[in-house]
Design a protein that fits this description.
Largest sheet: 6 strands, parallel
Order of helices and strands: EEHEHHEHEHEEHEHEHE
CATH architecture: Alpha-Beta Barrel
Distance between the termini: 22 Å
CATH class: Alpha Beta
Number of helices: 8
Helix content: 25-40%
Strand content: 15-25%
CATH superfamily: Glycoside hydrolase/deacetylase
Bound molecules: zinc ion
Number of strands: 10
Shape: globular
CATH topology: TIM Barrel
Length: about 220
């Protein structure tokens, strides 16, 4: 049980995960696209925007998706122990209060953690989930190179990193149409290797988690 979950083996499915939300304008647009593709996802949310947009959490869960913890404010876990406690332990308590149910998965901001933050998360009853495929949807500009690099990179058992809100994007007013089109492409590309896009819980329960003990952001 030591290490962060990167992907699973022996599963025909792929798990799509979204970080940094919720956002009142963007998250509903993402939910609409997922519904059209028959996909279910895990949303690693920040508790500060989640507390302001609590109904979005309920809407996300009602649509068959899963809510997990990404922290309180997206602070780096390489900082002081007070910061780590706020992001991990307080964040978990706040999110569970908002949801009225327990939270099992945690993804550190920037995928960066320390042995101390990892141990604290485990003591808080959280399992750390990173990813095996990064869509790099936080980048702007031309997506052709990204598409080429990712084509064929989605494989059964993968945990795919995406964002409903771009980092630092909570001040944005509406969705970025280019990013939504890119998400459509990601869903179509995953659809070429699996007909089941599922939550982390469903992916893990149907396969065997592959863990890594490294504490830096995956490539
Ligand atoms: Zn993030």
């Amino acid at each position: 049980m030591l290490g962060s979950i990167m992907r699973v083996t022996d599963s025909p499915s792929v798990s799509l995960t979204f970080d940094d939300g919720p956002h009142p304008d963007i998250t509903p647009a993402v939910l609409e696209i997922l519904a059209r593709h028959g996909a279910r996802a895990t949303f690693f949310v920040l508790t500060e925007p989640a507390a302001r947009h609590r109904s979005l959490l309920a809407e996300t869960v009602a649509a068959g998706h899963e809510i997990a913890l990404h922290g309180a404010s997206h602070a780096r876990l390489t900082g002081s122990s007070d910061v780590v406690r706020r992001e991990v332990v307080d964040g978990k308590a706040e999110l569970e209060d908002l949801l009225g149910s327990s939270v099992r998965w945690f993804r550190p901001s920037f995928g960066e953690q320390t042995k101390a933050s990892f141990a604290l998360a485990r003591r808080a009853g959280l399992q750390v989930v990173l990813w095996s495929v990064d869509t790099k949807d936080y980048l702007d500009g031309d997506v052709d190179e990204r598409r080429e690099r990712l084509q064929g990179g989605f494989t059964p058992g993968a945990i795919v990193l995406a964002h409903d809100v771009p980092t630092g994007g909570h001040e944005r007013s509406g969705p970025d149409e280019a990013k939504l089109r890119y998400l459509e492409w990601v869903l179509d590309a995953i659809g070429e290797v699996t007909s089941t896009i599922v939550t982390v819980t469903d992916l893990v329960s149907a396969g065997h988690p592959k863990r890594s003990t490294h504490f830096h952001r995956p490539r």
